[in-house]
Amino acid sequence: MSNQKIKKAGGAVSYADEEPDEFEAQVAQELLNLEMTSTELKASLSDLHITAAKEVDCGAGRKAIIIYVPFKLQRSFQKVQARLVRELEKKFSGRHVIIVAQRNILGKSYARSQKTKGLRPRSRTLTAVQDAILEDIVYPTEITGKRTRCKVDGRRVLKVYLDGRDQANVEGRTDTYAAVYGKLTNKQVSFHFSS
After folding, report:
1. What end-to-end distance do the CA atoms of the chain give, in Å?
2. Which backbone phi and psi does 182 adopt, to 5 degrees?
3. CB count, 10 Å around CB of 22?
């Protein structure tokens, strides 16, 4: 029953190697339970499904859950994200839940078919996808500025300035955001609040 809430990116769930693992099935089951029991989320969740879910270690014994959703359904998820994340965090006690859209990165050597000529879309470049992942992680907070700090030893740290109005809601989650972004992109990031 919970398989209707998870559809792998390759298409149908029928492939043996594309079966959802135990954790993904658990997250899909919780989404289905929310759809059945919550009156305010029922209409919103009926058309939505996820493509994957994974648990990430954030250090200091904390864990976060990353839920991947189809890119086309991202806007629909964002409409109910605040309530959905709150409910899922209650179910998975003590773990932060982050919703990220499933995006594709096309390499520099990408060649289009004969019918559609042209360059690869800018939205499919590595930089664009990583920026979009960062936007997804901190949603609904807005990013007001970014700086790349190059240290003497050659490491780069991305300083991200978030909207100061959301500081009370987000301040406890910034370590989780940094850990999740680091796991997904292998980039160091630090979050600050603009005044």
Report:
1. 48
2. -65, -40
3. 6
